Amino acid sequence: MRQRELGATGHEVGAIGLGCMGMSWGYDEGKRDDAVSAAVIREAIDSGVTFLDTADVYGDGHNERLVGGALAGRRDEVVLATKCGLVVDDLATRSMHRDGSPERIRAAVEASLRRLGTEHIDLYYLHRVDPEVPLADTWGALAELVEQGKVRWLGLSEVDTEQAAAAHAQHPVTAIQSELSLWTADAVENGVLDWCFANGAAFVPFAPLGRGFLAGAVGGPGDFESSDFRSTNSRFAAEAWEHNRRIVDVIERVAARHGATGAQIAIAWTASRGPHVLPIPGTKRSTYLRDNVGAADVELTAVDLAELDAVPAPVGTRY
């Protein structure tokens, strides 16, 4: 697989990473199969995927345990990213709160290291900024973990440019993770994507496939389990579905010209936003994994990009 630099670390990773959240919660939880998911993680590594993403909040620790088990004997082959700063209140409803206190950060990293079965975390994100705790206090606690050798690099998730700049002045920001796809352009509009490029940070887009919709991989409104995030998301509601399908129609036209899948085109578009962009599409199926990995080889033309850039705005909000 083609390689891209991870921020200013001097370290390269596969151009397409793997988001592991959906293996534990959020989507089709009734179809969760840890053995299959672990096999997909190992297949991803065999396919050149060397950037794996998880978080302590995904399944309230389940996802980290799953990823840690799958990496047994292969830990040194990947850059492993996880996150802290969110705490699960109720696993069944996925309700949670933010806690960026230094005490919580110190406890969280120890728990993540145990679950992941590793002596260090490569990239440790603050999952969300806690408005009740000064960012300088949270970031300072995270920087201490780097000094202690428990973490190599630090990242932020879902922040604005002011927060990114404040953190970066205190300790280097290696990466920022936020949603970016053909139906979510917030990171472009709020300047975070450009901030990353200007400051030598990677930008790591999650949900580049629009939670499956942009790949045409979801059946229709009402097809989701009640626990599935998409069952209550307005972009997947019946009244928005047909309008949003117009975005998929454009993706599929471009895909047909390339002999590619819609998923590959959607991911390739996201990756085309800059050389510092490292998409992390998630899946727990081998078939979809192979599609996603293939996106690294898709070369979009200027005509393709113009057509994709002009897709209709989506109906509904991302949360």
Which helices and strands occur, and which strands form pairs?
Blueprint lengths: L2 E3 L6 E3 L3 E2 L14 H13 L4 E3 L8 H9 L8 E6 L1 E5 L4 E4 L3 H15 L4 E6 L8 H13 L3 E7 L3 H10 L4 E5 L6 H4 L2 H7 L3 E5 L31 H21 L3 H10 L14 H9 L7 H8 L10
Parallel strand pairs: 3-4, 4-5, 5-8, 8-9, 9-10, 10-11
Antiparallel strand pairs: 1-2, 6-7
Helix pairs in contact: 1-2, 1-10, 2-3, 3-4, 4-5, 8-9
Q: Give the % helix.
A: 25-40%
SS-derived structural category = alpha/beta
- Total number of beta strands: 11
Low-confidence stretches: none
Using only CA atoms, what is the Rg?
A: 19 Å
Strand content: 15-25%
Oligomer: single chain
Shape field: globular
The ordered string of helix (H) and strand (E) elements is EEEHEHEEEHEHEHEHHEHHHH
For the largest beta sheet, what order do the strands appear in spatially? 3-4-5-8-9-10-11
Please name the defining characteristics of this protein.
319 residues, alpha/beta, seven-stranded parallel sheet, two-stranded antiparallel ribbon, 11 strands, globular
Question: Can I get a quick summary?
Answer:
The protein has helices at residues 34-46, 62-70, 102-116, 135-147, 161-170, 186-189, 192-198, 238-258, 262-271, 286-294, 302-309; strands spanning 3-5, 12-14, 18-19, 51-53, 79-84, 86-90, 95-98, 121-126, 151-157, 175-179, 202-206. The chain is α/β, with parallel strands linked by helices and 319 residues long. A 7-stranded parallel β-sheet has the order 3-4-5-8-9-10-11.
